[in-house]
Amino acid sequence: MDTASCIDVSTVNSHVRNEEEKQKGAFWGLVVGLLTGLIRLITEFAYGTGSCVTPSNCPKIICGVHYLYFAIILFCVSTLVIVGVSLLTKPIPDVHLHRLCWALWNSTEERIDLNAEEKWQEEIDIVEEDLPVQSRGCLKKAYDVFCGFQKSGPKLTKEEEEALRKKLTDTSEMPFWRNVVNISAILLLTVAVFVFAYFA
Fold first, then answer.
1. Residues 6+ apart with CB under 8 A from 18
2. CA torsion through residues 74, 26, 17, 89, sign
3. Entry's InterPro entries (predicted)?
4. Residues 7-37: b if buried by 16+ CB within 10 A, e if exposed
5. What residues does each domain of the chain span?
6. Helix, strand, or coil here: 149?
């Protein structure tokens, strides 16, 4: 949904809340970044790299920029597109974003899907259809079990449903494992930066 697009842009614009980085902003940021990178890639392949004897005819504005500077430019352009499109589109109500963004990460309120009404209507349509029950083959049954498409299950009481919902919406972390993950991430980033700097 919007998980990938929940970016904290408080440093860019102090009145923009991080849950306002919307799906459309993330999508268009990805599209613009992809197209910009493809333009450079295709241009370099089309004109070739050239040599000291026969330089390439590739336009300097595209191929004359060092690839690391181009990566910085690409990052800035994508960020501007994400923030710009997000500011120009209507914010998503908080009821749809609980536990999807940093600002609402520890919220215990129930999240309502954006397309909950459509799903409800689809379920009604399926129930209204009086199709004869067809026996499914072993392969299809195995596929359903493997992919978790089983329709039958134990009926839960109200208390069990509430306990299950509370467990599924719990975002608390054990301090020990949180520290292990954080230290591992720092070590991994340190090694990656060292290897990149050493072999660049």
1. 6, 7, 8, 9, 10, 101, 102, 103
2. positive
3. Na/Glc_symporter_sf
4. bebeeeeeebbbbbbbbebbebbeebbeebe
5. 1-49+60-90
6. coil
Contact 71, 61 (CB under 8 A): no
Name the amino acid, one letter, at 155.
K
Closest among 162, 165, 169, 161 to 105, alpha carbons compared: 169
Query: Looking at this protein, which amino acid is placed at residue 114?
Result: L
| 43 exposure class (CB count in 10 Å sphere: 0-12, 13-18, 19+) | middle
pLDDT digits (tens, 9 = 90+) for 58-79: 888 888 888 899 999 999 999 9
Pick the closest to residue 28 from 115, 98, 87 (CA basis).
87
The Cα–Cα gap between 83 and 12 comes to 9
The yes-or-no verdict on residue 146 having pLDDT over 60 is yes
